[in-house]
Amino acid sequence: MNKKIITATLLISDGPVDHSYFSELLDITNDELISILKEINSEINNIELGFEIKYDNTKSDIKTISEISTYLKDIKPASILKGLSTPALETLAIIAYEQPITKLKISEIRGVESESSIKTLEARGLIENGGQLDVPGNPILYKTTDLFLEKTDLESIEGLPSIGEYFDSPEEE
Hints:
The radius of gyration is 20 Å and the shape is globular. It is built from 8 helices and 6 strands; from the N terminus they run αβααββααβααββα. The protein has 2 domains: 2-72, Winged helix-like DNA-binding domain superfamily/Winged helix DNA-binding domain (Arc Repressor Mutant, subunit A), CATH 1.10.10.10; 86-166, Arc Repressor Mutant, subunit A. By secondary structure, the protein is an alpha+beta fold.
């Protein structure tokens, strides 16, 4: 029964499910949960379905297997990044590359106030409070979320392309 509950929960969730949820719901340890997740993945693999459960020690999610993602590109739901304004995208890029970063530093880099863009990105779940800087006023440090990584198909923030990867160097012009 636990496998059914875990699988159904992951199928209907909007994103990763924290393991503490399953521990409380099913009265199981994290090690028992991971063992069940491995068993579910083995069964999924045996019947060759187009998805698998991705998990670490704290959360789990159902993901499409990479081999078939190109076949699904035309039917993917609209990206959470779609419809973001240019200022919001600029702000998101700054946070992604400079995190953790304060609102003041973001505004200094952009040259304009960024409060509205930060609120939009927080509302969409793409950035979050990453702590506070230990200086007078204790400003919030912003960082990207797991949802940002998921929606940009990154395993970790280290997977971001280098800044110069998409631009010619000034010497080449």
